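Lesson 9: reading folded outputs for more than one chain in a single document. The general rule is that every protein is listed as its sequence immediately followed by its structure tokens, and records are never interleaved. Here is the first one.
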Amino acid sequence: MTEFLLGAAAFVLGTVALGLVRLLRGPGHADRMLAAQLLGTGGVAALLLLGVATGVGAIAEVALLLALLAAFASVAFVSGVHRPEGSGTTSGTAPSAASSQNENKRDSK
């Protein structure tokens, strides 16, 4: 059974390596983020299989930590990718109000 679990872990790591190619060459940000999620999920799976195969319980804790970091990475991606450029921490309402005032000045001339 140990050989099967180690073989399954090697197979999962092989698929993670293919995901690494997509991470490096992905055409868009979303493709790269999904590949990063694959790395996290595959890493967790490989670590859990390795922990069961070897009988080391601490590997499961490392897998849980990796899962937590992968979740934080996806939250950081979602919160950072949809922010308008140049908005900083503001909501972005001031530039649109200023541009509407400039349009009103041009229309009144």
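And here is the second record, again sequence then tokens.
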Amino acid sequence: MTCAYRVISIGTMSAHPLRGEEGMVRTSHATTTLLSIDDRQILVNPSLPPQLLESRLDERASLSLGDITDVFMTSFYPDHRRSLPALTGANWYVSEAERDAMLEFLESEQAGADSHVDQERQSLIEAERELVANTIVAPDHLAGGVDLFPLPGISPGSCGLLLPLPQQTVLICGDAVPTAEHLEQGQILASCWNREQAMESFKEAIEIADVLVLGRDNAMPNPIRARGLLG
């Protein structure tokens, strides 16, 4: 059984605070990664709109959305899953903690929408409920050589994927480590669900991985491990 990974689309932040940006400079999207394992094609964070993602899959892997067998989302935030409705032939996986947190959030939103008789809000909540209902709680071992690696903090159930490859350990870490600048400066996102947990997840990510697929950036070697600073 062989496992190969490839970045399909490099993500970006709407504004990069560590570059001095403020406001909405651009449209945010998460890094999308493809895992190819035997006859499975697992797409992590299908963030771009369907037409753009279809083009990136063709450019990077000669695949289409219809070739994707499984989807995994490191979190269920909307900008991690713009193409999800177009991936009807795939299994949609998310961590149990993230799924439960999303259901709890929608329950509270539903109560507010009902009390104000807000039909537009009710329709949006119903659409989100339908998406969540079609997700599957990801098993600890998503595929051969691919293990879940919980990274809570950015969201309640943020979760990465660990690939213990023969020559190196690769971690698809989502927004737990968003960009090269965050990695180099030991920073986490300012907007996170639990800052203490997010910082612990950041530390765990850099302690375990030789290569990090960053949440809003490319795959890159772990500079801490490369310098031999971790025992």
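What the second record shows: The longest strand covers residues 3-9.
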